[in-house]
Specification:
Blueprint: H1 2-34, E1 50-54, E2 61-66, E3 69-73, E4 79-81, H2 84-96, E5 99-104, H3 110-113, E6 121-127, E7 130-143, E8 148-155, E9 161-164, H4 168-172, E10 183-186, E11 192-199, E12 203-207, E13 213-215, E14 218-220, H5 223-233, E15 234-236, E16 254-260, E17 264-272, E18 275-280, E19 287-289, H6 292-298
Antiparallel strand pairs: 1-2, 1-6, 2-3, 3-4, 5-9, 6-7, 7-8, 8-9, 10-15, 11-12, 11-16, 12-13, 13-14, 16-17, 17-18, 18-19
Length: 309
């Protein structure tokens, strides 16, 4: 009789233990799944009006929105326009990014995935001075066998490191100038039909129906003119000069007017105490330092063009 009671008691204990273990496993699995959010970051874009970016091993800088337009904050109170679509795409990619898995919860592994405060790109989103969220974007790994890519990210105030199938590093690991409009002139070569210069050089280039060019009314047969037109068709520069403005540059020493089928663009060259700078009517408000490469493109070798007899 005693043996039967002991057997029943043992059976009950085993059943209870099995139930406890099963519940613990279920609870653990449930907790593990719940720690992976549907998206890395959730931001109220209507409230968002300030972004602080500290790119990898760089000083932080700020993008601010006012009157519906995003601008780069320079020293002091000065702000300059940026390419808004570039930022809008970066924000959209971040909000749509979905974590695939958690690769670590240990702070000592931050260096490995480059999501620490030095190696990672830290992006903090604000409404005024109130932080909305902050993320640290780490390195990108490429798997040659599966031809897949992983980008590691963590929320700045948490230890969980997520693996994403999204290249957020390319969107946010940028220098301040990378957000700005570097365009001086953008047109297809076929669209350019007239170029007029005044100042240190004076000439008028006019394209004829057969594609050849007239210089000051004289027909030319020279590849040099074609090279010049090709060079200015898509002209840009990353060399911003934020020390000068319309009140300090004076009058232009050289003006290049480019006429196309859709619009006309003026390029204005100024001689400042810091050297030559250029401004484009297609990118008002920005001035660019003129290096030797840009200078060569702005001044056509008209003297090298041979007159057709």
């Amino acid at each position: 009789m005693l043996n039967k009671l002991n057997s029943k008691l043992l059976l009950v204990v085993l059943v209870v233990l099995a139930v406890v273990v099963a519940m613990a496993v279920i609870r653990n699995n449930s907790n593990t799944v719940s720690t992976i959010p549907e998206h890395v970051a959730q931001i109220d874009t209507n409230a968002l009006n300030h972004i602080e970016i500290r790119a990898s091993e760089s000083e932080p800088y700020n993008l601010v929105r006012g009157a519906g337009k995003w601008k780069l904050q320079l020293d002091g109170d000065r702000k300059v326009p940026i390419e808004s679509k570039l930022l809008e795409t970066a924000i959209s990619n971040l909000l749509e990014a979905k974590p695939m898995k958690i690769v670590s919860r240990k702070e000592e592994s931050f260096d490995k995935y480059e999501v620490d405060d030095n190696l990672g790109t830290k992006v903090t989103f604000y409404n005024g001075n109130e932080p909305l969220t902050s993320v640290v974007i780490g390195k990108i790994d490429f798997n040659q066998q599966t031809r897949s890519m992983s980008n590691y990210v963590r929320l700045a105030d948490e230890n969980e490191v997520f693996s994403l199938n999204a290249a957020l590093n390319f969107d946010w690991n940028k220098k301040p100038a990378d957000w700005r409009n570097k365009t001086l002139l953008q047109a297809s070569i076929a669209q350019i039909n007239k170029v007029e210069a005044q100042g240190t050089q004076n000439f008028i280039l006019v394209k004829q129906e057969n594609g050849s060019w007239l210089a000051n009314g004289l027909p030319l047969d020279s590849n040099a003119i074609d090279v010049f037109v090709n060079g200015i068709a898509n002209l840009s520069s990353p060399n911003f000069n934020d020390e000068v403005n319309a009140g300090t540059v004076g009058e232009p020493i050289y003006t290049l007017q480019v006429f196309t089928e859709t619009n006309d663009v003026g390029l204005y060259l100024y001689n400042t105490s810091g050297g030559l700078v250029v401004q484009s009517s297609a990118n008002a408000g920005n001035y660019f330092n003129v290096d030797d490469n840009l200078k060569a493109k702005l001044f056509p070798p008209v003297e090298e063009a041979e007159e057709v007899e």
